């Protein structure tokens, strides 16, 4: 009986260690592939945030590989750190962030285990904060290139007219805005 318990404990510990080390996962469609065919390099897409909780912009500029992202927002000083993602749907007229549905997960990877930022191709395409880091209030400015997001509608990682969502530390969706093509003056 004692031997059995000891073995169970050892077994459980080994399994836990294996699971803890298993932080990456490949999507059902493989790892995300770099986007190299955006139609217009320099094309600008913007999500405008103008709510009580979040004001500012999340901008995506079509790059030779993927998208150059820039976050420039004010956030509540408390309740962070904040996550930000590309979700599947645009924000509806009602402004209800729940209706943007889940993350853009083009390669069907799921959100567990969490994104390993050292292997961004293995993360959900829309999990920008998982790949490039959380942000804090009261102001957040951050720039990064993401190779897997696209302004080319034929690409799996197409982000046009999808919702960008900020979440507080509890996971609540505190603000959302649709990424729209900037109108040229
Ligand atoms: C690692 O995760 C993958 C995908 O969830 C799973 O198929 C695999 O069995 C896991 N490996 C271990 C050692 O837990
Ligand atoms: C960020 O937003 C503020 C306020 O809208 C603006 O004044 C500033 O120029 C922006 N910064 C960048 C780098 O876009
Ligand atoms: C937002 O949408 C969700 C899903 O459709 C719904 O369950 C929820 O009641 C809506 N919230 C509000 C405030 O309308
Ligand atoms: Cu999200």
From TrEMBL:
Q: Which reaction does it catalyse?
A: 2 superoxide + 2 H(+) = H2O2 + O2
Q: Which UniProt keywords apply?
A: Antioxidant, Secreted, Signal
Record GO terms (molecular function): metal ion binding; superoxide dismutase activity
* GO cellular component term of the entry, any: extracellular region
In which domain of life is the source organism classified? Eukaryota
Q: Which residues form a coiled coil?
A: none
Instruction: Report the locations given in the UniProt record.
Output: Cell envelope; Secreted
Q: Entry's Gene3D superfamilies?
A: Superoxide dismutase, copper/zinc binding domain
Q: Which EC class heads this enzyme's classification?
A: oxidoreductase
Family, per entry: Belongs to the Cu-Zn superoxide dismutase family.
Q: What is this protein called in UniProt?
A: superoxide dismutase
């Amino acid at each position: 009986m004692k031997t059995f318990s000891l073995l169970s404990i050892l077994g459980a510990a080994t399994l836990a260690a294996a699971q803890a080390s298993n932080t990456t996962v490949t999507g059902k469609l493989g790892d995300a592939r770099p986007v190299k065919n955006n139609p217009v390099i320099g094309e600008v897409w913007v999500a405008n945030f103008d709510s009580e909780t979040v004001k500012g912009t999340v901008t995506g500029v079509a790059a030779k590989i993927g998208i150059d992202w820039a976050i420039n927002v004010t956030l509540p000083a408390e309740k962070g750190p904040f996550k930000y993602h590309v979700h599947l749907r645009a924000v509806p007229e009602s402004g209800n962030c729940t209706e943007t549905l889940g993350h853009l997960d083009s390669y069907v990877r799921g959100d567990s285990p969490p994104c390993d930022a050292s292997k961004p191709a293995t993360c959900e395409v829309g999990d920008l904060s998982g790949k490039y880091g959380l942000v804090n209030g009261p102001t957040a400015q951050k720039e990064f290139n993401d190779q897997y997001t696209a302004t080319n509608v034929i690409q799996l990682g197409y982000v046009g007219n999808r919702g960008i969502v900020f979440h507080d530390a509890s996971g609540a969706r505190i603000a959302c805005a649709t990424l729209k093509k900037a109108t040229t003056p």
